[in-house]
Every structure is written in C-alpha cells, then in structure tokens.
Amino acid sequence: MDGQTIVNALILGIVEGLTEFIPVSSTGHILLLGHFLGFESTGKTFEVLIQLGAILAILSVYFGRLWKLAVTLPSDATSRRFVFGILIAFLPAAVIGVLLHSFIKEVLFESPALICTTLLVGGIILLWIDRLPLRPRYTNVMDYPLSLCLKIGFCQCLAMVPGVSRSGATIAGALLMGTDKRSAAEFSFFLAMPTMAGAFAYDLYKNRNVLSADDLTLIVIGFVASFISGVFVVKGLLDFVSRHGFAPFAWWRIFVGIAGFAGLYFLG
C-alpha cells in the first residue's frame, strides 16, 4: 500500500461524508472518482464500509433526539409510530439489497457510464420536482403515516442503482407524496441509519474472508474522513434546504454527469 493509495482513500472518505446526505449520490461520486483515480478496493467493500462514518455523523448530531425517542418509546404512541415507520421504510431496501447484492456489486458498481447517466437523469428529475407548485400536507416527520413511510421505503430501493442517490430517491418520493422539503430531508436522515448500518453489516459479513490488513487500514482512513465531513453536512443541510431547496444539488448532479462522460470519452 503506497502513499498515493492512502491519499486516495482519504479523498474518497471526505467525498463520502460530503455527499451521503445530500441528493447527489455518494456511491456514484466515489465510484466515479475512484475510477479516474485508479482506486480499486477488494470486492468494492471500501465504498460500502466507509458509510459507517456517515452513520456515526448522524448519531453524533442527532444524539439528543435519538435519546429522547428511546426514553419515550415505552410510553409515547407518537414515538413508537415514528420508530415503526422508519423500520417499515427500511424493509424493502433490506430485502432487495440481500437478493440482488451480487448483481449490484459485480455489475452496477462496475458501470461508470451508467453512473453518469443516472446522475444526469436524476438531476433533471430533481430540478423538475423542485420547481413544482407542491402543497405539502406533512411537515413533521413524527406525523408521517405508516403507509407514507412504506412508500418512501420503496422509493429508496431505486438507489440500488449507483448514481440514483438514496437520499435523492427518498426525498423526491416524499415530496411528490405530500411532504415539505425540510421534513423530507430529515426523514431521509433517520432512514439512513438502519439502511446504511444494514448495508455495512451485510457487506462486511459477505467479504470477511477476503479483506486484508491493508484493506482494513484504508477503510479506517475513509471512515474517519467520512465521519468528520459528514458532521458538517448534517448540521447545516436542513437549514440550507429550507432556504434554497434542492435545485443547487440538481445542477451539481448534471455538472458531474456531464464531466464524467467527458472524462470517460477523453481518458477512458
């Protein structure tokens, strides 16, 4: 393992943390960037396992709310319904992720042109949704009905295709089903916890016998970088979305998609 590989792992970890919670596709970004950096991880585990840093970023920022949920869970029906709603939303991705794990890692993760396409198309869709004159019916994540949570969970399954964006799919689906922008982004935060924790645990289990000490060192570097950059994003994203909407992220997706196609054409 040389110094350049360590630097690449650090860069990719920072990008993971910066992009995990915004609707631009963190996986698409690190796979595409890793392609041009020449970064290869064993079984594409690095790209999945460093998401643990982003999970801990949410836990650190939302610790107060999570603790309150845990304390009030036995006695408060609203808290129980919210937690149950998150679990219901998590189930579709859990089932599909297990069934299609090999196809996702061995085919979809190895398709830079597909990632560029989904970044572009997703940016256009997000821009269209951001400009719709939507009238939200739900403005508090604690009040989301269970049927809405399940529908958002099915939307999250679209993110099995790299470049679609887990947060982008859940936020876009939530907005079209009557939520406001701030609560849609917040629900995506909470849904990320079981989703990414599950992906981390399953991928680690599947690749436990092929990871070397060097692989684990790179994963730790990426994990720490992801955590630090993720904290900054989680702290500021909701206020940013409330003021500016999702159009800036849509334009960024379009820019990266076009730049990616240009890079593939000129660099291969």
TrEMBL record:
Keyword Transmembrane helix in annotation: yes
InterPro entries: UppP
GO cellular component: plasma membrane
Keyword Membrane found: yes
GO molecular function: undecaprenyl-diphosphatase activity
Keywords tagged on the record: Antibiotic resistance, Cell membrane, Cell shape, Cell wall biogenesis/degradation, Hydrolase, Membrane, Peptidoglycan synthesis, Transmembrane, Transmembrane helix
Membrane topology: Multi-pass membrane protein
Purpose of the protein: Catalyzes the dephosphorylation of undecaprenyl diphosphate (UPP). Confers resistance to bacitracin.
Note: Bacitracin is thought to be involved in the inhibition of peptidoglycan synthesis by sequestering undecaprenyl diphosphate, thereby reducing the pool of lipid carrier available.
Protein name: Undecaprenyl-diphosphatase
Source organism: Roseibium album
